[in-house]
Design a protein that fits this description.
112 residues; mainly alpha
Length: 112
């Protein structure tokens, strides 16, 4: 888990243009980790406060169809990579990752 958190923190520090190009060439493990976050967000397995859930829902609303596809385990990695390479979806996922998911994961890890 610490390895994934470090990976996400490194991805979070990339600039917007580099993020999208990184997604086109990143290892499959990275794509799987991002899609696992989407799955967990959809199934609400990440514990968030009421306010954060509301903000998350508002951010996911415009890209909800794509996020559902990313959370589907039967979809191929190449298809997921194409979805994440779309500017609106990729940037949306990174924004959610930076503002909501990473702090929740870090606090969960610190409490253990």
């Amino acid at each position: 888990m610490k390895k994934r958190i470090n990976m996400f923190q490194n991805m979070k520090q990339l600039k917007r243009e580099k993020r999208l190009s990184f997604l086109k060439t990143c290892p499959d493990e990275c794509i799987h980790a991002l899609c696992e976050i989407c799955f967990n967000l959809l199934h609400q397995t990440i514990k968030l406060g009421k306010d954060k859930k509301h903000r998350l829902k508002q951010k996911l609303k415009p890209i909800r169809v794509d996020v559902c596809k990313l959370g589907n385990s039967k979809l191929s990695v190449n298809s997921k990579r194409k979805i994440l390479s779309k500017p609106q979806v990729g940037d949306g996922i990174f924004t959610i990752l930076a503002t909501t998911v990473l702090p929740a994961l870090i606090s969960a890890l610190a409490s253990k």
